[in-house]
Amino acid sequence: xSRSIRLVSAAGVVLTLAVASGCSGGSGVNVGGAGSxxxxxxxxxxxxxxxxxxxxxxxxxxxxxxxxxxxxxxxxDTLVQPDANLNMxxxxxxxxxxxxxxxxxxxxxxxxxxxxxxxxxxxxDVVYSFERIxxxxxxxxxxxxxxxxxxxxxxxxxxxxxxxxxPNMLANVGGFKGVGxxxxxxxxxxxxxxxxxxxxxxxxxSYVSGDKIELVPNPHYWGPKPKLAGVTYTFVKDPTVALxxxxxxxxxxTDNLPPQQVASLKNNSDISVQSAPSTDYWxxxxxxxxxxxxxxxxxxxxxxxxxxxxITKAATFGNATVNQTAIPKGSQWYFEYAPYTHDPAxxxxxxxQAGVKNASMDLMVTSQYPxxxxxxxxxxxxxxxxxxxxxxxxxxxxxxxxxxGKGNFDSFxxxxxxxxxxxxxYYAQHHSGANFNFQKYSNPSVDKLLDQARTETDQKARxxxxxxxxxxxxxxxxxxYLYNPDVVQGWSKKVSGYQVRSDRAIRFGQTSLxx
Length: 515
Known about the structure:
Blueprint: E1 5-6, H1 11-20, E2 27-30, E3 46-51, H2 66-72, E4 80-82, E5 88-90, E6 93-98, E7 104-109, H3 123-135, E8 147-154, E9 157-162, H4 169-174, H5 184-189, E10 202-208, E11 212-217, E12 230-235, H6 239-248, E13 253-254, H7 262-265, E14 271-277, E15 281-286, H8 296-305, H9 308-316, E16 320-322, H10 344-353, E17 359-366, H11 370-384, E18 388-395, H12 397-406, E19 411-417, H13 422-430, H14 444-453, H15 459-476, E20 479-492, E21 495-496, E22 512-513
Parallel strand pairs: 3-12, 3-13, 17-18, 17-19
Antiparallel strand pairs: 1-19, 2-6, 4-5, 6-7, 7-9, 8-9, 10-11, 11-12, 13-20, 14-20, 15-19, 15-20, 16-20, 21-22
Helix pairs in contact: 8-10, 9-11, 13-14, 13-15, 14-15
Protein backbone atom coordinates (compact mmCIF):
# COMPACT_ATOMS: atom_id res chain seq x y z
CA UNK A 1 0.00 0.00 0.00
CA SER A 2 1.21 2.28 -1.31
CA ARG A 3 1.29 8.17 0.22
CA SER A 4 1.84 7.92 -2.00
CA ILE A 5 1.95 4.98 0.32
CA ARG A 6 1.16 1.60 -0.88
CA LEU A 7 -0.73 -0.24 1.71
CA VAL A 8 -0.81 0.17 0.21
CA SER A 9 -11.40 13.75 0.40
CA ALA A 10 -11.40 16.82 0.00
CA ALA A 11 -9.24 15.67 -2.81
CA GLY A 12 -10.20 18.46 -5.15
CA VAL A 13 -8.46 20.93 -2.87
CA VAL A 14 -5.31 18.85 -2.71
CA LEU A 15 -4.93 18.35 -6.37
CA THR A 16 -5.78 21.90 -7.31
CA LEU A 17 -3.09 23.27 -5.04
CA ALA A 18 -0.53 20.68 -6.05
CA VAL A 19 -0.81 21.97 -9.59
CA ALA A 20 -1.13 25.63 -8.70
CA SER A 21 2.12 25.36 -6.80
CA GLY A 22 3.96 25.20 -10.11
CA CYS A 23 3.60 28.99 -10.39
CA SER A 24 3.86 30.58 -13.78
CA GLY A 25 6.38 33.29 -14.49
CA GLY A 26 8.40 32.81 -11.30
CA SER A 27 7.25 33.33 -7.74
CA GLY A 28 8.22 33.34 -4.09
CA VAL A 29 6.52 31.99 -0.97
CA ASN A 30 7.20 32.73 2.67
CA VAL A 31 4.71 31.61 5.29
CA GLY A 32 6.62 30.75 8.43
CA GLY A 33 7.81 27.18 8.89
CA ALA A 34 11.05 26.07 10.52
CA GLY A 35 12.68 28.67 12.65
CA SER A 36 9.30 29.83 13.95
CA UNK A 37 8.62 29.98 17.68
CA UNK A 38 8.52 26.60 19.37
CA UNK A 39 6.54 27.78 22.33
CA UNK A 40 4.39 25.47 24.38
CA UNK A 41 5.38 22.71 26.73
CA UNK A 42 5.19 18.95 26.94
CA UNK A 43 2.29 17.86 29.11
CA UNK A 44 -0.08 14.98 29.53
CA UNK A 45 0.75 11.30 29.49
CA UNK A 46 1.82 8.77 26.94
CA UNK A 47 -0.73 8.13 24.21
CA UNK A 48 -1.30 4.43 23.56
CA UNK A 49 -2.02 3.96 19.84
CA UNK A 50 -3.10 0.62 18.34
CA UNK A 51 -2.27 0.15 14.66
CA UNK A 52 -3.21 -2.83 12.52
CA UNK A 53 0.24 -4.23 11.90
CA UNK A 54 3.96 -3.85 12.43
CA UNK A 55 6.14 -1.62 10.23
CA UNK A 56 8.42 -3.50 7.87
CA UNK A 57 11.18 -0.97 8.66
CA UNK A 58 11.58 2.68 9.70
CA UNK A 59 13.70 3.97 6.83
CA UNK A 60 11.25 6.47 5.33
CA UNK A 61 12.85 6.43 1.91
CA UNK A 62 12.78 2.65 1.56
CA UNK A 63 9.52 1.58 3.16
CA UNK A 64 6.24 1.69 1.27
CA UNK A 65 4.13 0.31 4.13
CA UNK A 66 1.47 2.47 5.73
CA UNK A 67 2.16 0.99 9.18
CA UNK A 68 5.66 2.44 8.93
CA UNK A 69 4.39 5.87 7.97
CA UNK A 70 1.92 5.93 10.85
CA UNK A 71 5.03 6.11 13.04
CA UNK A 72 7.33 8.07 10.73
CA UNK A 73 4.85 10.91 10.24
CA UNK A 74 5.82 12.01 13.75
CA UNK A 75 9.55 11.34 13.43
CA UNK A 76 10.59 12.96 10.14
CA ASP A 77 10.20 16.31 8.41
CA THR A 78 10.09 17.31 4.76
CA LEU A 79 10.94 20.59 3.03
CA VAL A 80 7.24 21.45 2.82
CA GLN A 81 4.18 19.54 3.99
CA PRO A 82 0.41 19.41 3.43
CA ASP A 83 -1.73 20.97 6.15
CA ALA A 84 -5.07 19.60 7.33
CA ASN A 85 -6.73 20.96 4.19
CA LEU A 86 -3.92 19.44 2.12
CA ASN A 87 -2.53 22.81 1.08
CA MET A 88 1.26 22.70 0.80
CA UNK A 89 2.88 24.73 3.59
CA UNK A 90 6.43 25.52 4.73
CA UNK A 91 8.17 23.03 7.03
CA UNK A 92 11.97 22.74 7.09
CA UNK A 93 11.94 25.30 4.28
CA UNK A 94 10.44 28.61 5.35
CA UNK A 95 10.22 29.92 1.79
CA UNK A 96 10.92 29.01 -1.82
CA UNK A 97 11.28 30.73 -5.20
CA UNK A 98 10.76 29.56 -8.76
CA UNK A 99 12.46 31.00 -11.81
CA UNK A 100 10.43 32.47 -14.67
CA UNK A 101 11.03 29.42 -16.82
CA UNK A 102 10.10 27.18 -13.84
CA UNK A 103 13.33 25.21 -14.24
CA UNK A 104 14.93 26.37 -11.00
CA UNK A 105 13.40 25.94 -7.55
CA UNK A 106 15.25 27.49 -4.61
CA UNK A 107 14.30 26.48 -1.05
CA UNK A 108 15.39 28.52 1.98
CA UNK A 109 15.76 26.53 5.20
CA UNK A 110 14.78 27.78 8.64
CA UNK A 111 17.37 28.79 11.21
CA UNK A 112 18.88 26.47 13.81
CA UNK A 113 17.56 23.19 12.44
CA UNK A 114 18.77 20.00 14.12
CA UNK A 115 18.24 16.27 13.98
CA UNK A 116 16.92 14.56 17.09
CA UNK A 117 20.46 13.57 18.12
CA UNK A 118 21.40 17.25 18.28
CA UNK A 119 23.51 17.38 15.14
CA UNK A 120 22.76 20.30 12.77
CA UNK A 121 20.48 19.80 9.78
CA UNK A 122 21.72 21.82 6.81
CA UNK A 123 21.26 22.04 3.07
CA UNK A 124 23.86 19.29 2.66
CA ASP A 125 21.53 16.87 4.45
CA VAL A 126 18.73 17.84 2.07
CA VAL A 127 20.96 17.27 -0.96
CA TYR A 128 22.12 13.93 0.45
CA SER A 129 18.55 12.80 1.11
CA PHE A 130 17.24 13.53 -2.37
CA GLU A 131 20.34 12.26 -4.12
CA ARG A 132 20.00 9.04 -2.14
CA ILE A 133 16.42 8.64 -3.37
CA UNK A 134 17.39 9.36 -6.97
CA UNK A 135 20.76 7.59 -7.26
CA UNK A 136 19.72 4.49 -5.32
CA UNK A 137 16.39 4.38 -7.19
CA UNK A 138 14.40 4.24 -3.97
CA UNK A 139 10.62 4.21 -3.83
CA UNK A 140 10.07 7.89 -4.61
CA UNK A 141 12.69 8.17 -7.34
CA UNK A 142 10.01 8.23 -10.05
CA UNK A 143 8.96 11.66 -8.76
CA UNK A 144 12.27 13.22 -9.72
CA UNK A 145 12.83 12.30 -13.37
CA UNK A 146 13.02 15.99 -14.29
CA UNK A 147 15.68 16.80 -11.68
CA UNK A 148 19.05 17.55 -13.33
CA UNK A 149 20.90 18.58 -10.17
CA UNK A 150 20.47 19.46 -6.50
CA UNK A 151 22.99 21.82 -4.96
CA UNK A 152 23.65 23.54 -1.64
CA UNK A 153 25.17 26.97 -2.35
CA UNK A 154 25.14 27.71 1.38
CA UNK A 155 24.05 25.87 4.56
CA UNK A 156 20.51 27.30 4.41
CA UNK A 157 19.79 27.10 0.67
CA UNK A 158 18.89 24.18 -1.61
CA UNK A 159 18.57 24.58 -5.38
CA UNK A 160 16.80 22.09 -7.66
CA UNK A 161 17.61 22.49 -11.35
CA UNK A 162 15.07 20.81 -13.63
CA UNK A 163 15.06 19.66 -17.23
CA UNK A 164 11.39 20.56 -17.67
CA UNK A 165 8.68 22.44 -15.76
CA UNK A 166 7.31 20.28 -12.96
CA PRO A 167 3.90 21.53 -11.83
CA ASN A 168 3.70 19.11 -8.89
CA MET A 169 7.14 19.96 -7.51
CA LEU A 170 5.91 20.87 -4.02
CA ALA A 171 3.98 17.62 -3.72
CA ASN A 172 7.07 15.76 -4.90
CA VAL A 173 9.39 17.23 -2.27
CA GLY A 174 6.93 17.22 0.62
CA GLY A 175 3.77 15.26 -0.05
CA PHE A 176 4.63 12.49 2.44
CA LYS A 177 7.41 11.34 4.73
CA GLY A 178 8.87 9.04 2.09
CA VAL A 179 10.83 12.12 1.04
CA GLY A 180 11.80 12.94 4.63
CA UNK A 181 15.25 14.38 5.30
CA UNK A 182 17.53 11.68 6.71
CA UNK A 183 20.88 11.80 8.50
CA UNK A 184 23.72 10.19 6.52
CA UNK A 185 25.47 8.69 9.56
CA UNK A 186 22.18 7.06 10.58
CA UNK A 187 21.89 5.57 7.10
CA UNK A 188 25.52 4.46 6.90
CA UNK A 189 25.30 2.66 10.25
CA UNK A 190 22.16 0.80 9.19
CA UNK A 191 20.40 1.92 12.36
CA UNK A 192 17.84 3.86 10.36
CA UNK A 193 15.77 0.70 9.91
CA UNK A 194 14.90 0.43 13.61
CA UNK A 195 16.36 3.54 15.28
CA UNK A 196 15.78 6.41 12.85
CA UNK A 197 17.12 9.91 13.47
CA UNK A 198 14.77 12.55 12.12
CA UNK A 199 13.83 16.15 12.82
CA UNK A 200 10.12 15.72 13.59
CA UNK A 201 8.27 16.44 16.86
CA UNK A 202 9.02 12.99 18.28
CA UNK A 203 11.93 10.55 18.19
CA UNK A 204 12.09 6.78 18.57
CA UNK A 205 12.99 5.75 22.12
CA SER A 206 12.71 2.01 21.55
CA TYR A 207 11.50 -0.55 19.03
CA VAL A 208 10.65 -4.01 20.29
CA SER A 209 9.86 -6.14 17.24
CA GLY A 210 6.53 -7.89 17.53
CA ASP A 211 5.52 -5.74 20.48
CA LYS A 212 5.73 -1.95 20.35
CA ILE A 213 7.46 1.26 19.27
CA GLU A 214 7.90 4.03 21.80
CA LEU A 215 8.24 7.68 20.84
CA VAL A 216 9.28 10.55 23.11
CA PRO A 217 9.42 14.30 22.36
CA ASN A 218 12.36 15.47 20.28
CA PRO A 219 14.16 18.06 22.45
CA HIS A 220 15.68 19.66 19.34
CA TYR A 221 12.43 20.06 17.39
CA TRP A 222 12.15 23.36 15.51
CA GLY A 223 8.36 23.68 15.82
CA PRO A 224 5.83 23.79 18.67
CA LYS A 225 6.80 21.30 21.36
CA PRO A 226 4.60 18.19 21.60
CA LYS A 227 1.92 18.26 24.25
CA LEU A 228 2.25 14.54 24.95
CA ALA A 229 4.96 12.90 27.04
CA GLY A 230 5.16 10.24 24.34
CA VAL A 231 3.36 7.90 21.98
CA THR A 232 3.50 4.11 22.18
CA TYR A 233 2.39 2.14 19.12
CA THR A 234 1.21 -1.42 19.63
CA PHE A 235 0.45 -3.81 16.78
CA VAL A 236 -3.12 -5.15 17.01
CA LYS A 237 -4.18 -7.08 13.93
CA ASP A 238 -7.71 -7.93 15.08
CA PRO A 239 -10.06 -4.91 14.77
CA THR A 240 -12.36 -6.36 17.44
CA VAL A 241 -9.48 -6.52 19.90
CA ALA A 242 -8.39 -2.98 18.98
CA LEU A 243 -11.92 -1.74 19.66
CA UNK A 244 -12.08 -3.58 22.97
CA UNK A 245 -8.76 -2.06 23.97
CA UNK A 246 -10.06 1.40 23.07
CA UNK A 247 -13.31 0.96 24.97
CA UNK A 248 -11.50 -0.39 28.04
CA UNK A 249 -9.00 2.47 28.05
CA UNK A 250 -6.01 0.22 27.36
CA UNK A 251 -5.38 2.31 24.24
CA UNK A 252 -6.54 5.85 23.51
CA UNK A 253 -6.38 5.87 19.70
CA THR A 254 -6.77 3.38 16.85
CA ASP A 255 -7.45 3.30 13.14
CA ASN A 256 -8.20 -0.42 13.21
CA LEU A 257 -11.93 -0.51 13.90
CA PRO A 258 -14.36 -3.25 12.80
CA PRO A 259 -15.84 -1.72 9.63
CA GLN A 260 -19.24 -3.31 10.23
CA GLN A 261 -19.54 -1.37 13.49
CA VAL A 262 -18.47 2.08 12.28
CA ALA A 263 -22.00 3.45 11.82
CA SER A 264 -23.10 2.44 15.32
CA LEU A 265 -19.81 3.52 16.90
CA LYS A 266 -20.30 7.06 15.63
CA ASN A 267 -23.28 7.27 17.98
CA ASN A 268 -21.26 5.94 20.93
CA SER A 269 -20.91 8.55 23.66
CA ASP A 270 -17.91 6.83 25.27
CA ILE A 271 -15.47 7.19 22.37
CA SER A 272 -15.04 9.49 19.38
CA VAL A 273 -15.24 7.82 15.96
CA GLN A 274 -14.84 10.04 12.93
CA SER A 275 -14.40 9.49 9.22
CA ALA A 276 -13.44 11.52 6.16
CA PRO A 277 -13.44 10.83 2.43
CA SER A 278 -9.98 9.81 1.30
CA THR A 279 -7.75 10.14 -1.73
CA ASP A 280 -7.08 6.38 -1.53
CA TYR A 281 -8.05 3.72 -4.01
CA TRP A 282 -8.18 -0.09 -3.87
CA UNK A 283 -7.72 -2.31 -6.86
CA UNK A 284 -6.96 -5.74 -8.25
CA UNK A 285 -3.94 -6.32 -10.51
CA UNK A 286 -3.21 -9.24 -12.85
CA UNK A 287 0.32 -10.35 -13.67
CA UNK A 288 0.75 -9.71 -17.38
CA UNK A 289 3.78 -12.00 -17.59
CA UNK A 290 1.56 -14.98 -16.68
CA UNK A 291 -0.75 -16.57 -19.22
CA UNK A 292 -3.61 -16.09 -19.86
CA UNK A 293 -3.50 -12.72 -18.09
CA UNK A 294 -1.12 -11.32 -20.68
CA UNK A 295 -4.20 -11.16 -22.93
CA UNK A 296 -6.17 -7.91 -22.41
CA UNK A 297 -9.37 -9.74 -23.40
CA UNK A 298 -8.95 -12.02 -20.39
CA UNK A 299 -8.23 -9.08 -18.10
CA UNK A 300 -11.34 -7.32 -19.39
CA UNK A 301 -13.31 -10.52 -18.80
CA UNK A 302 -12.23 -10.40 -15.17
CA UNK A 303 -13.27 -6.74 -14.98
CA UNK A 304 -16.75 -7.55 -16.34
CA UNK A 305 -17.13 -10.54 -14.01
CA UNK A 306 -16.68 -8.50 -10.85
CA UNK A 307 -19.59 -6.96 -8.95
CA UNK A 308 -17.92 -3.93 -7.42
CA UNK A 309 -20.87 -3.12 -5.20
CA UNK A 310 -20.75 -6.59 -3.65
CA ILE A 311 -16.97 -6.47 -3.28
CA THR A 312 -17.07 -3.02 -1.67
CA LYS A 313 -19.80 -4.06 0.73
CA ALA A 314 -17.87 -7.17 1.76
CA ALA A 315 -14.57 -5.33 2.09
CA THR A 316 -15.66 -2.10 3.78
CA PHE A 317 -19.27 -2.60 4.93
CA GLY A 318 -20.24 0.54 3.06
CA ASN A 319 -17.38 2.78 4.21
CA ALA A 320 -16.29 3.45 0.63
CA THR A 321 -17.46 4.61 -2.81
CA VAL A 322 -17.33 2.34 -5.87
CA ASN A 323 -15.13 3.71 -8.65
CA GLN A 324 -13.71 2.31 -11.88
CA THR A 325 -10.84 4.80 -12.06
CA ALA A 326 -8.27 5.77 -9.43
CA ILE A 327 -9.10 9.40 -8.59
CA PRO A 328 -12.19 9.84 -6.39
CA LYS A 329 -15.33 11.77 -7.18
CA GLY A 330 -15.24 15.34 -5.92
CA SER A 331 -11.74 15.93 -7.22
CA GLN A 332 -11.26 18.29 -10.14
CA TRP A 333 -9.12 15.50 -11.61
CA TYR A 334 -11.90 12.90 -11.43
CA PHE A 335 -12.54 11.21 -14.76
CA GLU A 336 -16.06 9.84 -15.08
CA TYR A 337 -15.53 6.57 -16.86
CA ALA A 338 -17.12 3.24 -15.92
CA PRO A 339 -17.14 0.82 -18.88
CA TYR A 340 -17.45 -2.37 -16.83
CA THR A 341 -20.89 -3.44 -15.66
CA HIS A 342 -21.33 -6.66 -13.69
CA ASP A 343 -21.92 -8.83 -16.76
CA PRO A 344 -20.87 -12.50 -16.46
CA ALA A 345 -22.23 -13.25 -19.95
CA UNK A 346 -20.01 -10.55 -21.46
CA UNK A 347 -17.09 -11.88 -19.43
CA UNK A 348 -17.59 -15.40 -20.77
CA UNK A 349 -17.86 -14.03 -24.30
CA UNK A 350 -14.50 -12.28 -23.92
CA UNK A 351 -12.94 -15.44 -22.50
CA UNK A 352 -14.18 -17.32 -25.55
CA GLN A 353 -12.78 -14.69 -27.92
CA ALA A 354 -9.43 -15.10 -26.16
CA GLY A 355 -9.62 -18.85 -26.65
CA VAL A 356 -9.69 -19.50 -22.92
CA LYS A 357 -12.38 -21.78 -21.51
CA ASN A 358 -10.99 -22.52 -18.10
CA ALA A 359 -8.14 -20.99 -16.16
CA SER A 360 -6.66 -20.98 -12.68
CA MET A 361 -5.65 -17.90 -10.74
CA ASP A 362 -3.56 -17.38 -7.65
CA LEU A 363 -5.04 -14.37 -5.77
CA MET A 364 -2.62 -12.95 -3.23
CA VAL A 365 -4.06 -11.06 -0.24
CA THR A 366 -2.74 -10.15 3.19
CA SER A 367 -4.12 -10.84 6.64
CA GLN A 368 -2.88 -7.46 7.82
CA TYR A 369 -5.46 -5.82 5.58
CA PRO A 370 -8.56 -7.89 6.32
CA UNK A 371 -10.56 -6.11 3.62
CA UNK A 372 -8.47 -7.92 1.03
CA UNK A 373 -9.33 -11.27 2.59
CA UNK A 374 -13.05 -10.46 2.71
CA UNK A 375 -13.08 -9.13 -0.86
CA UNK A 376 -11.19 -12.18 -2.12
CA UNK A 377 -14.06 -14.48 -1.16
CA UNK A 378 -16.45 -12.51 -3.37
CA UNK A 379 -13.92 -12.22 -6.19
CA UNK A 380 -13.27 -15.98 -6.14
CA UNK A 381 -16.97 -16.76 -6.35
CA UNK A 382 -17.59 -14.34 -9.21
CA UNK A 383 -14.61 -15.49 -11.26
CA UNK A 384 -15.52 -19.11 -10.67
CA UNK A 385 -18.77 -18.40 -12.49
CA UNK A 386 -16.85 -17.60 -15.71
CA UNK A 387 -14.46 -20.54 -15.52
CA UNK A 388 -11.56 -19.06 -13.57
CA UNK A 389 -10.68 -21.20 -10.55
CA UNK A 390 -9.28 -18.84 -7.91
CA UNK A 391 -6.95 -20.04 -5.19
CA UNK A 392 -6.73 -17.44 -2.43
CA UNK A 393 -3.26 -17.13 -0.92
CA UNK A 394 -3.27 -15.24 2.38
CA UNK A 395 0.12 -13.99 3.58
CA UNK A 396 1.43 -11.69 6.26
CA UNK A 397 2.35 -8.33 4.78
CA UNK A 398 6.12 -8.84 4.80
CA UNK A 399 5.71 -12.06 2.78
CA UNK A 400 3.14 -10.37 0.57
CA UNK A 401 5.57 -7.56 -0.30
CA UNK A 402 8.36 -10.05 -0.97
CA UNK A 403 6.21 -12.12 -3.32
CA UNK A 404 4.94 -9.02 -5.10
CA GLY A 405 8.48 -7.74 -5.60
CA LYS A 406 9.57 -11.09 -7.07
CA GLY A 407 6.51 -11.28 -9.34
CA ASN A 408 5.36 -14.52 -7.69
CA PHE A 409 1.63 -14.02 -8.21
CA ASP A 410 -1.12 -14.29 -10.78
CA SER A 411 -3.11 -11.52 -9.15
CA PHE A 412 -3.34 -9.48 -5.98
CA UNK A 413 -5.54 -6.92 -4.27
CA UNK A 414 -4.25 -3.91 -2.37
CA UNK A 415 -4.49 -0.13 -2.21
CA UNK A 416 -2.66 3.17 -2.65
CA UNK A 417 -3.27 6.02 -0.26
CA UNK A 418 -2.49 9.66 0.39
CA UNK A 419 -2.12 10.70 -3.24
CA UNK A 420 -1.74 14.46 -3.70
CA UNK A 421 -1.36 14.87 -7.46
CA UNK A 422 -2.70 12.93 -10.49
CA UNK A 423 0.86 11.87 -11.30
CA UNK A 424 0.87 9.90 -8.03
CA UNK A 425 -2.24 7.98 -9.05
CA TYR A 426 -0.83 6.70 -12.33
CA TYR A 427 2.87 7.12 -13.15
CA ALA A 428 4.64 4.72 -10.77
CA GLN A 429 1.95 2.10 -11.26
CA HIS A 430 1.46 2.10 -15.04
CA HIS A 431 4.45 3.65 -16.80
CA SER A 432 6.58 0.95 -18.45
CA GLY A 433 9.30 -0.18 -16.05
CA ALA A 434 8.19 2.17 -13.25
CA ASN A 435 8.91 1.34 -9.59
CA PHE A 436 5.53 -0.07 -8.66
CA ASN A 437 4.45 -1.51 -12.01
CA PHE A 438 4.57 -5.03 -10.58
CA GLN A 439 1.90 -6.23 -13.02
CA LYS A 440 4.35 -5.39 -15.88
CA TYR A 441 1.93 -3.30 -17.90
CA SER A 442 3.36 -1.52 -20.92
CA ASN A 443 1.57 0.78 -23.34
CA PRO A 444 3.71 3.32 -25.27
CA SER A 445 0.71 5.64 -25.70
CA VAL A 446 0.13 5.68 -21.94
CA ASP A 447 3.84 6.28 -21.34
CA LYS A 448 3.79 9.28 -23.67
CA LEU A 449 0.73 10.81 -22.02
CA LEU A 450 2.07 10.30 -18.50
CA ASP A 451 5.41 11.83 -19.49
CA GLN A 452 3.69 14.83 -21.06
CA ALA A 453 1.27 15.38 -18.19
CA ARG A 454 3.90 15.51 -15.47
CA THR A 455 5.55 18.52 -17.17
CA GLU A 456 2.41 20.19 -18.54
CA THR A 457 1.81 23.59 -16.94
CA ASP A 458 -1.56 24.28 -18.58
CA GLN A 459 -4.07 22.82 -16.16
CA LYS A 460 -6.77 22.12 -18.76
CA ALA A 461 -4.34 20.35 -21.08
CA ARG A 462 -2.92 18.38 -18.15
CA UNK A 463 -6.40 17.20 -17.17
CA UNK A 464 -7.07 16.02 -20.73
CA UNK A 465 -3.80 14.08 -20.82
CA UNK A 466 -4.56 12.29 -17.55
CA UNK A 467 -8.11 11.55 -18.71
CA UNK A 468 -6.78 9.93 -21.89
CA UNK A 469 -4.20 7.93 -19.97
CA UNK A 470 -6.77 6.81 -17.39
CA UNK A 471 -9.12 5.61 -20.14
CA UNK A 472 -6.39 3.48 -21.72
CA UNK A 473 -5.33 2.08 -18.34
CA UNK A 474 -8.92 1.11 -17.55
CA UNK A 475 -9.58 -0.29 -21.03
CA UNK A 476 -6.40 -2.37 -20.84
CA UNK A 477 -7.29 -3.43 -17.27
CA UNK A 478 -3.78 -2.70 -16.06
CA UNK A 479 -5.46 -2.22 -12.70
CA UNK A 480 -9.04 -3.26 -12.11
CA TYR A 481 -10.18 -0.42 -9.86
CA LEU A 482 -12.71 -1.23 -7.18
CA TYR A 483 -13.43 1.61 -4.73
CA ASN A 484 -12.27 4.70 -2.84
CA PRO A 485 -12.44 4.03 0.94
CA ASP A 486 -13.17 6.42 3.79
CA VAL A 487 -10.62 7.22 6.50
CA VAL A 488 -12.06 5.95 9.81
CA GLN A 489 -10.36 6.44 13.19
CA GLY A 490 -11.41 6.34 16.83
CA TRP A 491 -10.06 7.78 20.07
CA SER A 492 -10.79 8.24 23.73
CA LYS A 493 -12.74 11.21 25.04
CA LYS A 494 -9.56 12.03 26.97
CA VAL A 495 -7.83 12.88 23.68
CA SER A 496 -8.04 16.38 22.23
CA GLY A 497 -6.30 18.27 19.45
CA TYR A 498 -6.36 15.35 17.03
CA GLN A 499 -7.89 15.50 13.56
CA VAL A 500 -8.72 12.86 10.93
CA ARG A 501 -7.05 13.75 7.65
CA SER A 502 -8.07 12.65 4.17
CA ASP A 503 -4.42 11.84 3.37
CA ARG A 504 -4.24 9.52 6.42
CA ALA A 505 -1.28 11.40 7.90
CA ILE A 506 -1.24 10.52 11.61
CA ARG A 507 0.02 13.61 13.42
CA PHE A 508 0.20 13.63 17.21
CA GLY A 509 2.38 16.73 17.59
CA GLN A 510 -0.38 18.90 19.05
CA THR A 511 -2.52 16.14 20.54
CA SER A 512 -3.28 16.26 24.26
CA LEU A 513 -4.27 13.49 26.67
CA UNK A 514 -6.17 14.24 29.85
CA UNK A 515 -4.94 12.19 32.81
